[in-house]
UniProtKB/TrEMBL annotation:
Keyword vocabulary terms for this entry: ATP-binding, Nucleotide-binding, Transport
UniProt name for this protein: ABC transporter ATP-binding protein
Molecular function in Gene Ontology: ATP binding
Pfam family, any one: ABC_tran
ABC transporter domain mapped to chain residues: 10-247
InterPro entries per record: AAA+_ATPase, ABC_transporter-like_ATP-bd, P-loop_NTPase
Presence of keyword ATP-binding: yes
CDD domains: ABC_Org_Solvent_Resistant
């Protein structure tokens, strides 16, 4: 039998997730390859965040299988899921830094929670992570309220990378950033993928991010992945929602080269 655990960072099979009578994910299957940046698009309220949260064990599923780096994820948020948490770093939509902690303390938070390290080593790690995301060591003394939107995202990214996870989950990483800051952030993600060999699972509505940094794009509609492949293949998809998304008036206005 072929050992797929070396090929795929994430495998989702026949996943069903719902709340009460609402079925959000309906027998969804998806493979994320090791080392790729996968972009996930879908209608607002279509279940992108629910998929991401189910993969990391925050939302229980009704049925289906999930594997991360070859390890099965439990159906509920149990001990085995918690021990897998060092496999991923997460950047939630709002950045969600602790406002009463400095930037350095925010970055060190996952280290304190998971490891026993000397303060000197934690300070060295925080400085290295700040540099990795393009911030200066002295930015470590600032509080979240003193940061710009772009800096906040970078600090949240540094915190997500604190434990050197092989997988990064990003929920709309460029939302709220101006186009220049968004482009810089995209470039940073690409650099981290290349230099660290990271697998990146990115929920985004940002057409520029999809076009410039994603190796593949997956489209979620009607609770399933209805198209997946490089952006040029998605643009050829005949699925009605995918066509409407990429070839609708607004997309064409933003990306004239897509026509
Ligand atoms: N904890 C929850 N309890 C009940 N319903 C929920 C919960 N979380 C999400 N939902 C519902 O699941 C559906 C999918 O939500 P989700 O947040 O995944 O959408 P999304 O695709 O990420 O949307 P957006 O692009 O607007 O962020 C929505 O109808 C939402 O109301």
């Amino acid at each position: 039998m072929v050992d797929t655990s070396q090929t795929f960072a994430i495998r989702v099979r026949d996943l069903v997730v719902g709340f009460g009578r609402q079925i959000v994910l309906d027998h969804l299957s998806l493979d994320v390859r090791r080392g790729e940046i996968l972009g996930l698009v879908g209608a607002s309220g279509g279940g992108k965040s629910v998929l991401m949260r189910t993969i990391i064990g925050l939302i229980p599923r009704r049925s289906g299988e999930i594997e991360v780096m070859g390890e099965p994820i439990g159906a509920t948020h149990d001990r085995s899921t918690r021990s897998l948490a060092s496999q991923w770093g997460i950047l939630f939509q709002q950045g969600a830094l602790f406002s009463s902690l400095t930037v350095r303390q925010n970055i060190q938070f996952p280290l304190r929670e998971n490891l026993v390290l000397s303060q000197q080593l934690m300070d060295e790690i925080a400085t290295a992570k700040l540099e990795m995301v393009g911030l200066r060591p002295q930015d470590g003394d600032k509080y979240p309220a003193e940061l710009s939107g772009g800096m906040t995202k970078r600090v949240a990214l540094a915190r997500a990378l604190a434990l050197d996870p092989p997988i990064l989950f990003l929920d709309e990483p460029t939302s709220g950033l101006d186009p220049i800051a968004a482009g810089d952030f995209d470039a940073l993600i690409k650099t981290l993928q290349r230099t660290l060999g990271l697998t990146v699972f990115m929920v985004t509505h940002d057409l520029a991010s999809l076009t410039t940094v994603c190796d593949r794009v997956a489209a979620l509609a009607d609770g399933k992945i209805v198209a997946i492949g490089p952006m040029r293949e998605l643009l050829q998809s005949e699925h009605p929602w995918v066509r409407a998304y990429f070839h609708g008036k607004r997309s064409q206005m933003l990306q004239p080269q897509m026509r």
